[in-house]
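User: Continuing from earlier, I have the next pair ready.

Assistant: Great, send them over.

User: Here they are, in order.

Assistant: Folding the first of the pair now:
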Amino acid sequence: MTSLRVLNETALPSWWLRTISVIVFATISCSSSVEPRSGVTLLVTNGTCQEGHCDSLRVLGFPSNQPNTPGGLWSLDLGLVTTSQECLPLPPTAVFRVIGVGDGGGADTTSFTWTNANSLSLGAQPPSSSQIVASPSTTTFVPADAAGWQITVPGGAQPTSTSACTP
C-alpha cells in the first residue's frame, strides 16, 4: 500500500503528460532545417472567376502545430481575394494562446508559436463563413523554403514555389 501511495504522489498528472506529448509531437513533426524568413508572399489565383465576376474568398493558413481545442482549428487570416489574382504576405511568425482555468482557479495560458520555417496548409472560404468551421484544403508546405508561393483556390492542392510577388 505504501509503494502505491508513493507512486501516486510522484506520478505526473494526466493533463501534464498529455501537454508534454502534444508539445513533443508538434516539435518533431513541425521541425525544419530552414530559418524563418521575412517577405514571403503568396500569389493567389481566384478559381471562382467567370465572365468577369469573381466570388470573394478569405484565404486562411493552418499551422501544423495545432492544439486540440473545442473551438476548431487555429488559422491565420492571410487576406481577402476579390479579384482574379491577389498577392498576400505570409507572416514570419504567429502565436496562438489557449486560455483555461488552472488547478488553483486562476488563468492557465498555453502559447503555441508558429514561424514560417514550420509547415502550413491553406484553405479558402467565403468571407461570411465562420472561421470556426474552416479547414485546410491543401497539402502542407514550409513557406520559408522559397521567397514566394502560388496557388489557385479553390481547387489547388499543392502550393508551388515561385518568386515573390508585390502585396
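And the other member of the pair:
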Amino acid sequence: MSRLKSTFNKAMTFVQTAETVVCAIGLSITTLLIFAQVVNRYWLHFEIMILGDLALYCFIFFMFIAAAVATWNESHVSVDILKAKVLQGKPMSLAVHRVAMVLLSIGILCLLLPPVHRFLLRAIEYPEYGTLVRWFNTSWLMETFAFGMILVLVHLLVLAVRDVKNLRALRATRDRGDT
C-alpha cells in the first residue's frame, strides 16, 4: 500500500510540475504575442491579424491548464471572509469548512462534466476551423477544456482525501481530550 501511495504521490508531483511548466511557458508566449501585436499595431502601424488570434488561442489554452494549477494550489476563487474571520482559531470548524468546500466543488464539477463530455465529443466529431487561417483546427481548444476539467477533478479528489484525513485526525485528537 505504501508503494502505491508513493507512486501516486510521485505521479501527482510530476503532473503538478508539468502543469506549472506549461503555464509558465504559456504566460511567456502569450505575453510575447501581445507585446508583438502592440508594437506592430501602435508603433509600426502594421497590424498582423494572426498575432491576435494566436494570442487568444494561447491565452485560452493556458487558462484551462491554469485552472488545474489554481485548484491544487488551493488558490481558486472562494469566499474567504468566512474562513478568515469567523473560523479563525477554530481548527475543527475550519477542517469541516475545508471538507465541505472541496466536496461542494467536486459536486458542482460533476454536474458540469456531462455537458463538457458532450462538448468534447462534438469537438472531436466536428472540427471547427479558424477564421483567418482556414486550415487551422480550433477544436483543440474545446478538447483542452475537457482535459483541464479532468485535471481539476483529480486535484479536488486528492484535496478531499487529504482534508477528510485531517478532519478525522482532529476529531480523534478532540475525542482523546488532547485539545
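Worth noting for the second one:
The mean pLDDT is 81. The radius of gyration is 21 Å.
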